[in-house]
Amino acid sequence: MIQSVDRAVRILTALQGARRMGLGELAAQLELAPSTVHGIVRTLLDHGMIAQERDSGRYRLGPATLRLGNVYLDTLELRSRSVPWAEDLAARTGMAVRTAVLLAGPGGDVIVVAHEPRPGGGRQMNEVGIVVPAHACALGKALLAFDPAGEPAFDTAGEPLRSMTGETITDPARLRTELAAIRRVGLATEAEEAVLGEYGLAAPVADHSGTIAGAIGLVVPQTEWPVGPGATDALRAAARSISRELGAPSWPPVVRDRPAASA
Amino acid sequence: MIQSVDRAVRILTALQGARRMGLGELAAQLELAPSTVHGIVRTLLDHGMIAQERDSGRYRLGPATLRLGNVYLDTLELRSRSVPWAEDLAARTGMAVRTAVLLAGPGGDVIVVAHEPRPGGGRQMNEVGIVVPAHACALGKALLAFDPAGEPAFDTAGEPLRSMTGETITDPARLRTELAAIRRVGLATEAEEAVLGEYGLAAPVADHSGTIAGAIGLVVPQTEWPVGPGATDALRAAARSISRELGAPSWPPVVRDRPAASA
DNA sequence: ATGGACGTTCGGCATAGTCGAAATGCGTTC
DNA sequence: GAACGCATTTCGACTATGCCGAACGTCCAT
């Protein structure tokens, strides 16, 4: 691990938490000398990865980050393959459809890479790029259940997981039990665990190597919960079809590595 | 300039040009030893800035880049201030509206940070994040004309600029003349210089320090060109209003630095 | 079965980055 | 209006860090 590169990414991550930061704030948060941070910041500045406010001297993220993120979306085959199926799903069920992938690093978050708005819902925010804790949403639980590296990620010595609402699962053991159930059924659910009044249903998507590439799911309003078998079957069919288009040999994806390391 | 951080950003930039690259390709493009690149790549991998295809071993951009880009958009006051005015402009003129900023680094590109689709145009691609050469679009010319650091950026010893269509201005001297005219009028135009059949009109937006923060412009179809005074005035009014909301002391922005260093 | 290509790992050397301290610029207070 | 204080920025020396060459393992194609 290259030290200075690691620090550079940490700086970007810090700036993505607090919108604007002074050099001193950054140095304090990374526990480094201000001059050390300055060298890295200067380099990122030259590439447009961060920008400096001309008057206050503080730093923000720069436009080059937007370019990177946009190219990532373009190169993501999961996204392009999902779009037609998401449109179909939204038309059939009348609900919004999200596609998401697991985000690396600590925290165990998922990030939405495609979003099909609810039909007839007027102007809706584009939700591509939003981040949700994995353990608190159906998409995240589908990803955690089938990703061999996902489940150990939140295995932080039994300390409670971050709570979003009163319904969020904060007990790692209980989450692990639910993930095992999701592996058997091939579908994950969410009941007001991330946002009050919002329910969800999600299914994993596999790629040509047989491992999980992402998850696709329905955003279900409270009045529609629980969903009928029609929506469930349509979602399962869409996930299977996308996986097949990506070259997956089977669906639901098989979880390799450790079949049952838990008690 | 920190060497390894600079190289890390170069790797990301290379990956944004070619969608997938092997380690050898990356090393060849950066003219470095493969093992050197590997260390940096490994670090970026751990942070999710890049991802590795499980079978081929090649590298792609990772989901963390999407998160960064999304946070950048959220923190951009230019964007949030532009949205209401862009909606109003689109409703008045019946055209799509784009807001863009100048992208740092070589090449002199602009990147779209907000996009209001043409009213009644059905499903349109979201153009946020697309990149256009600055000298080939109205938004870019508005930015170059009023950014003190913009004009010298393409001053590469008189060699011709990259051509997009037959109408693209490739002569730096001619571009400089046009930028001077834009500075006087406060509006930039574009006639099939980036995309055939597409015309454009753009105005600069200033921020509280008086310098240029971005540009807002209309995407004009061939049948609507040239636009009437109503659309021109509305665009100018929107640019002035956004600038005022950002705290700009004047509009059009004043170009400080060198008023006339050219011959 | 064998060759090649690619990603990956390891260790020594030297460069390149880190950190302290001083300098500059700016806003604020008295 | 002038001086204080904070913040970013610059500079220089030390040494820890990352760079590179070479060897290993693996996968694919022949």
TrEMBL record, chains A, B:
Domain HTH iclR-type: 2-63
InterPro entries: ArsR-like_HTH, GAF-like_dom_sf, HTH_MetabolicPath_Reg, Tscrpt_reg_IclR_C, Tscrpt_reg_IclR_N, WH-like_DNA-bd_sf, WH_DNA-bd_sf
GO molecular function: DNA binding; DNA-binding transcription factor activity
Keyword flag Kinase: no
Entry keywords, A to Z: DNA-binding, Glycerol metabolism, Transcription, Transcription regulation
One of the protein's GO biological processes: glycerol metabolic process
SMART domains found in the cross-reference section: HTH_ICLR
Protein origin, superkingdom: Bacteria
Domain IclR-ED span(s) in chain numbering: 64-248
Role description: May be an activator protein for the gylABX operon.
Protein name, UniProt field: Glycerol operon regulatory protein
